[in-house]
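$ ./design --mode recover --in tokens.txt
reading tokens...
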């Protein structure tokens, strides 16, 4: 079953591209299909538990996503096919695992990296065409179509544990469906990217046999693959080596952007791979680069990242680094959106109107396809100062309400907004779920703190399509031990030989006691103070004390409970006059 969801509350957009700029670039708000809410971020859950490649066929408005079901020669492969609105069109399954995708220049043929060859499919019927022979792949291929040829990497290892360092060849398919070695090879899971003007780029991820990985650009226009530029990034002391996650050519081929998990986003001149005169702003603190893609119209750059919490995972900004227009920022979090942008998980449509992003969860076992069409206008939001809580004295195990107000600029939301909340105490950080924001902006977060000491509540607004996220609201509450109480009843006077009968009740607020309370009983008379037998409180909270006094005159009975880690102690006394 294919489900497309219109995201309304989980994608956070933290700055606006000017409406006029967006309109000029074709980035407009487009309504989702009638069955779904209008949104600029449509999300489809992908039917895969691994990911190798994403490619976009703008001619037919199709998006292809391939899994990477490696590990056993008999594992099957899957390529999911979607339209530009996020609806799954079909699924291509193969008898052996696949990895890597490439479309030919007119989009009529999809090349898929297979275990034992290069599979080819008609992009109109999705029927298989004659396959091309290729060297056996056990580690996963990368593919690119450049200069009229489908290039592919050919790694081989006896064990998956050797794939990161195995020797990998760069090969290409010939017109008779045989394959030819290009003469280029190196260690690791080499990555390929095609660019305009018959350009081909090859990048080397960091691995144990590549202390200083390379990036290289080739001219694929002739019969021989000619390297035109190459670069390694470490300095003379071996510092600064690249940690390649993705790479992309600009629309005119003159620039190269690199998603470097160590350095962020590198912008290079493609002619010699030197640093461009002006680079892009650094990714937000806590974000590690994972993907990069230029829009086909040359106006925009998408940068994907791995980040947590409120830190953006996706930034959309002008491709010209000298343009200071603030970026649109998306943060993905949770089971409806994934937690980060997958490496190599970004591609644009040719006209720049849509960005396709593959996100994954923290474990890398689930994947989502986002169809992003940025809005033209966004408005600021903020939390009002002075959150409150009740009751004023917070105690462990009792209900606590934290109240605040969210202020919104711009039009009122079509649906109630939500805030999310966490509590951080000595036991760590605990998710408290969401709270609905009322029409007047107020909200209430309900909780039962479990430990004594300081508890810090953090409330977040993740934004929606027309509102930017708000800076998190924090509120620290001192949580004390819950009260306990003892009520004691005694006769005013008793004869010495009849004894004393006391009754009482015990109550403890907050978290229920793990066992029934045991109360200490003391008697004080003219002969001194002594301890009597303790009493256990009944299930209904009642208890009795029976004693035979040892002296006449006033005798005081004191019943006490010492408390525990979550409850305060309590005591009660009663005085009885003992007569003959």
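writing sequence...
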């Amino acid at each position: 079953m294919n489900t497309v969801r219109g995201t309304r509350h989980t994608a956070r957009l933290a700055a606006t591209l000017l409406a006029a700029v967006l309109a000029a670039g074709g980035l407009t708000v487009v309504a989702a299909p009638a069955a779904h809410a209008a949104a600029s971020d449509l999300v489809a859950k992908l039917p895969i538990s691994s990911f190798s490649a994403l490619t976009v066929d703008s001619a037919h408005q199709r998006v292809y996503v391939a899994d990477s079901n490696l590990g056993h020669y008999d594992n099957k492969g899957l390529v999911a096919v979607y339209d530009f609105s996020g609806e799954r069109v079909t699924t291509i399954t193969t008898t052996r695992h696949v990895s890597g995708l490439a479309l030919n220049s007119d989009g009529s043929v999809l090349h898929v990296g297979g275990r034992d060859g290069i599979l080819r499919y008609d992009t109109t019927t999705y029927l298989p065409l004659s396959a091309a022979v290729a060297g056996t792949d056990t580690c996963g291929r990368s593919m690119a179509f450049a200069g009229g040829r489908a290039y592919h990497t050919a790694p081989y290892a006896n064990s998956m544990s050797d794939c990161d360092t195995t020797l990998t060849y760069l090969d290409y398919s010939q017109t008779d469906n045989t394959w030819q070695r290009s003469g280029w090879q190196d260690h690791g899971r080499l990555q390929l990217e095609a660019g305009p003007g018959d350009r081909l780029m090859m990048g080397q991820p960091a691995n144990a046999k590549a202390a200083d990985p390379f990036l290289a650009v080739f001219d694929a226009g002739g019969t021989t693959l000619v390297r035109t530029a190459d670069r390694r990034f470490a300095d003379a002391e071996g510092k600064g080596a690249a940690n390649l996650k993705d790479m992309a050519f600009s629309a005119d081929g003159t620039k190269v952007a690199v998603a470097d998990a160590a350095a962020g986003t590198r912008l290079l001149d493609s002619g010699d791979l030197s640093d461009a005169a002006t680079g892009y702003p650094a990714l937000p603190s806590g974000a590690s680069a994972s993907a990069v893609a230029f829009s086909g119209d040359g106006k925009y750059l998408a940068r994907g990242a791995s980040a947590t919490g409120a830190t953006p995972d996706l930034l959309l900004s002008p491709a010209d680094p000298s343009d200071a227009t603030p970026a649109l920022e998306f943060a993905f979090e949770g089971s409806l959106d994934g937690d980060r942008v997958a490496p190599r998980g970004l591609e644009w449509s040719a006209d720049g109107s849509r960005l396709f992003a593959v996100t994954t969860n923290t474990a890398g076992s689930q994947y989502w396809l986002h169809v992003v069409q940025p809005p033209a206008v966004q408005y600021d939001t903020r939390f009002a100062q002075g959150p409150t809580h009740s009751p004023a004295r917070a105690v462990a195990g009792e209900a606590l309400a934290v109240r605040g107000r969210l202020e919104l600029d711009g039009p009122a939301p079509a649906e109630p907004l939500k805030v999310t909340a966490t509590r951080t105490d000595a036991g760590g950080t605990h998710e408290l779920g969401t709270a609905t924001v009322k029409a007047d902006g107020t909200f209430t977060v309900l909780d039962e703190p479990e430990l004594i000491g300081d508890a810090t509540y953090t409330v977040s607004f993740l934004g929606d399509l027309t509102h930017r996220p708000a800076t998190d609201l924090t509120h620290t509450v001192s949580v004390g031990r819950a009260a306990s109480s003892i009520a004691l009843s005694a006769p005013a006077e008793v004869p010495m030989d009849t004894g004393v009968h006391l009754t009482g009740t015990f109550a403890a607020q907050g978290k229920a006691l793990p066992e029934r309370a045991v109360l200490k009983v003391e008697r004080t008379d003219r002969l001194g103070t002594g301890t009597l037998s303790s009493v256990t409180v009944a299930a209904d909270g009642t208890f009795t004390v029976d004693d035979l006094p040892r002296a006449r005159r006033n005798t005081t009975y004191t019943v006490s409970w010492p408390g525990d880690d979550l409850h305060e102690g309590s005591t009660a006394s009663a005085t009885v006059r003992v007569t003959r």
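exit 0
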